[in-house]
Each structure stands twice: as C-alpha cells, then as structure tokens.
Write a structure and sequence with these properties.
5-stranded mixed sheet; alpha/beta; single chain; 2 domains; 424 residues; Nitrilase/N-carbamoyl-D-aminoacid amidohydrolase; elongated
C-alpha cells in the first residue's frame, strides 16, 4: 500500500470514528497505525506538507459537516458566505495539520530506535491535539481551541455514572438516578417550543410553559419532596423575561410553594453611562441568562460568560468589513457577563446548584468550580448545564455529551445536562 493510500485510509478511519462514536470509535486505533507508518517512509518535507494537508482536508471536511448544515438550515445568509466560511475553516485546520506532519517527520528523523520513534510520534500527536483543542482559535483574539476533535471523547460512554440527561424521552432509569442522588428533591423537565419557529411570540411561549407546568401535575409532589425543581434548556423562553414579568405570575398559579423553576432565556439591560466629555448615553445589552424563579418572583439569575464567535457575537474585524456590514446590520448581538467566577445558588440548606450555559462549559476554564466544591464539602453540589443542542447533528450531540461525561469525571461532580428534545 503506497503512502497516499495510507493517508486517505487514516483520514477516513479517523472521520468515521467521530461520525459514529457509539459504533465505530475503535477505528481511531487503525487511523493512528496508518498515520504512524506514513512517517516511516522517506519523503521530502514538501511531500509531508501535502500529505498533511490532504489528511486534514479529509478529516475536517467531513467533521465540519455539522457546521455546514448549521449555517444552511439555521442562518438566513447568502450561500456564498456559507461556503466561504466552511472552506476557510477546513483550509485553516488542514494547514495546521500540514505543519504537524512536517514537525513530526523532523522529530522522528533523529531517532533510529523503533520504540523511541513511536514515543516521539505519540508525543507529537498529543501536542497537535492539545493545540487544536485549546489554542487553534487564538487568531480570533481569544485563548480558545476546538474541543470536539479530541480522541479522548470517543471513550466517554460509561466512564462516569454521575451524569444524567434530560429531554422529552426522560426515562424512569434516569429519574431514579436523580432521586437517589438528591433524595429529597424531584427534578422534572420542561419541554420547550421550537426556538427556530419564526411565528413565536412571548405570549405564545409563555402560554406553552404554563400548559407544560399544568400537565406535570406538580401538586402531587408537594408533600412527597422537600423541593420540586423544574428545568428547561437554553432558550426555553427566547425573549427578555425581565421585560415580561407578567408571565411569571401566570406560571406561579400552577407552581406549588416548594417549587423552583429554572430555564434559559434572555435579559435586556439598559444602563446610562457617562462619557468623558460629560454626555450621557444609553448602553443597551442583551444577555443569555438562566433565571431561577420561586414563589412568583425571580430570586436569582445567571448571565452567560462566553459568546460563540460569529453566531452569538461577531468579531470586530468582521464587523468592520464593508462586505459584511449590510448583512450583519440586523443581527442580534449578545454580551457576555463581566463576572469571571461561576456561582453556586442555594436552593436549600443542603443543596446548591451551579448553573452553566452551553458554550462556556466547553470553552472556559472550569477550575473555579473546584474552589466552589471545597467551600461546600458538606453539601450536595450539582452542576446544571443548560444547552440548546437542537442546533446540531446527532453525531455532534454525542460528542458534546461525551465531553460532559469526562468533565464530570475530572471535577468529580454530578452534572445534569438539560438539553433539547430529539424531535421538536
């Protein structure tokens, strides 16, 4: 088998392992075996640059199908720009892979021992994936990478039993697990409306939430549990809840006194800020927010600390381009919270909840949570991860969930993944 065939096969095996992580994750082993054999052949460095580009183009071209599908189905922008964004992402990652191929070959050349060659190869592979997952997006002005191409995610099926998932197919097995951990608390799921429905209004969504709460028949849990916790995913109420407080009064009519309602929404903030010249102007900001509602009022809220580039917030250098100004003029831009630390909200004397909203879980440093854990050793501490995964294809959702499982393992904390229903 020639070196070109090995490169293509390695890339295809790698891609299929991520595309079908439940059934074909084992293909990653064969991908790395072929990849190692590529570096044992004698070729010029320019040839390795080409091979690396080919490997990266195939791998990321297949992997980022989720991005292409997302842009086509969820964003009303010109197909030309969609293709342009997709090609840029694939070419950029392919070039990074070319650099990895060259550096790996240079390192392997200096060693004749086969065992040392393998160690060097694995070391270079490790450095490559660390860079891709943690630093590859630094050109956008942030110390971030792309975490969903990490081979470790392919192992994340049953390594930890402290993660449980909520959706409309919420099964008794999962429900029992929640109750065993929390004992005195009942957790229920609030099924949202499709947030991509153009005909949604705040009133319609509010009525839907009311009927969902009524159908849960919450009164029967009132005396059985210390508290009833009803959760909904990110964008359950895709409007400014702090500007529609009448909705809360409506929901409270079917909520028992010991109930807590938590879901993802938006928050509109207007602050008067003084300029240096002495003039005042309005600084309007929109936040992605999780609200905690109890006994007819908002008792706490948490603003998201991270914005996904291009979808939630457009980079400044893109905004300033003449070609994009017209396209982006009506685009809703989110702001991120200035608070750097995560919060633990007290539900009762023996339970605290750490709300985290979607992308900040995957892109931000979560070491701060370990400090919160140390301060609350004698209390039940649980992470509530509010996610809008309705955006993504099934294979990408699986990678997200595997990431959550491994993070739970590292933090040694239970995580409640509050995602969107599979069919909505």
């Amino acid at each position: 088998m020639n070196i070109l065939s090995k490169t293509i096969l390695s890339a295809i095996f790698f891609s299929f392992a991520f595309f079908y992580p439940d059934k074909l994750a084992f293909l990653i082993i064969f991908s790395f075996i072929f990849l190692y054999k590529i570096f044992l052949t004698k070729k010029k460095l320019l040839e390795y640059f080409k091979l690396g580009f080919l490997w990266g183009f195939i791998v990321y071209g297949i992997h980022f199908v989720w991005l292409l599908e997302l842009l086509i189905s969820k964003f009303l922008i010109n197909y030309f720009f969609i293709v342009l964004i997709y090609i840029f992402v694939v070419l950029y990652t392919a070039i990074l892979t070319s650099c990895f191929f060259i550096l790996t070959k240079i390192c392997i050349i200096f060693f004749k021992n086969k065992i040392l060659k393998k160690i060097i190869f694995l070391g270079c592979l490790f450095i490559y994936f660390v860079f891709i997952t943690k630093y590859s997006m630094c050109f956008l002005g942030k110390k971030e990478g792309y975490p969903f191409i990490n081979p470790v995610l392919l192992l994340g099926c049953d390594i930890n039993k402290k993660v449980f998932f909520l959706s409309d197919n919420f099964k008794k097995k999962q429900n029992n697990f929640c109750e065993k951990f929390l004992k005195n608390y009942k957790i229920l799921f609030l099924t949202p409306l499709n947030c991509f429905d153009k005909n949604l209004t705040s009133c319609r969504v509010g009525q839907h939430i009311y009927h969902e709460l009524a159908n849960l028949n919450l009164e029967k849990y009132k005396h059985k549990f210390k508290n009833v916790i009803i959760v909904g995913p990110e964008t359950t109420y895709p409007f400014f809840l702090n500007k529609n407080l009448d909705q809360i009064k409506l929901w409270d009519s079917v909520l028992p006194e010991n109930a807590y309602l938590m879901f993802g929404s938006q928050r509109f903030s207007t602050k008067s800020i003084q300029k240096q010249q002495g003039e005042w102007y309005e600084n309007n900001k929109v936040f992605q927010t999780v609200y905690i509602i109890h006994q007819g009022r908002i008792i706490n809220f948490y603003d998201k600390k991270h914005c996904v580039q291009f979808t939630e917030k457009t980079p400044k250098f893109i905004k300033n381009l003449k070609i994009t100004k017209e396209i982006l003029k009506n685009k809703l831009e989110f702001s991120k919270s200035k608070l750097k630390k995560f919060k633990a909200f007290k539900i009762s004397k023996d339970l605290k909840i750490i709300p985290i909203i979607c992308s900040e879980f995957f892109f931000l440093n979560l070491n701060e949570i370990k400090k919160i854990k140390k301060k609350n050793i004698n209390k039940n501490l649980i992470i509530l991860l509010f996610v809008n995964d309705s955006w993504f294809m099934p294979y990408f959702k699986k990678l997200m969930k595997n990431f959550v499982i491994f993070t739970s393992y590292k933090l040694n904390l239970p995580i409640l993944y509050v995602g969107w229903p599979e069919k909505i």
